Amino acid sequence: MKKIFYSIMAIAALTACNKEQVGTAPQADDSVIRLTSANVGVATKAPVDGTTFTGQTAIVLASTVSGNYTSDNLYGETANMYMKFNGTDASGFCTADGTQQDKYYDGANTTYLYGLYPHASWGAPGSESYTLTIDGKTDAMTAPEVAVSKAANTGEGKQPGNLTFAHRLTKLLVTAEVTEGEGYWDNITGIELIEAGGSTSIQNTLTVSATDLSETFSGNTASLPFYSWSGESVYGDASVLDVTLPGKGEEAVPAAYTLCAPVTADGSDDFKLKITLANGNAYEVPVGLQTKDSQAFTGSTAGYEFTIALAFEAEIIEATATITDWLEGGISTVPVEPGDIVE
Hints:
single chain; 2 domains; eight-stranded antiparallel beta sheet; six-stranded mixed beta sheet; 1 helix; about 0% helix
């Protein structure tokens, strides 16, 4: 299964300073722990498209113990366990509000780094666990631990450490077009995810344990809203929609997006949407997933982006789910009868 990762370079620095000196008096530039990244150009917390960051802030936990990021093991002050990435320029640690507050290497000892994005959604560093609420519009990425040290990562011919950020959620995009029966359907005013992985309880929490870095999806909600989407990387935060359907045969229009917990697809109805129109009618649309070669898609949807193409006809709505961008996949189609209006 192909994965598209979101990478930042953890540049190991030089010279010694003990743990008590971290974040205190400035030292030589080559002793500062720095990270680099490149340009993304999207708003913080919105879905991150592309492979690099700019103007984005993540929590970058630094620990003296591999796999354990509880307060006793965090390296230095917790107030500056953040990093605001600025294109390809090297960035040092900072506070949550972006104020630079460097960390320095602790002599020849190894430092362990772990990343959480976005910085404002997981809680403060030093917790026993880090929890993000899945609201449908906040991206979530984690970066597996990397060990960095002067001996291993600095000097001629050596490679810097690399934090590889990966999407933990599934992105669903919805487009709409009219193939028959122009004028039969009203504007779309709302779209909700009402079923995922065969369950009507939608998981809405992602928790990362500070003791072993395990990730757990939990919680439940009856539905998850879709938000306004204008195409490409233009993501809004309005769940009340006003999507005017195009004329018959015209190009499909972007309608909405949501970011949800992944499911383990089994080739049946992996998701179900509730579509509400301006006239008050609502329709439930099941969506099964397929690969690009029209085989049943199976396995985890984590990190995948699916474009659900709604085709409005005189008597049915067809929903086709195409995997695009993040990880690749295919298409599925499901008809919905107008008479099946949800009361």
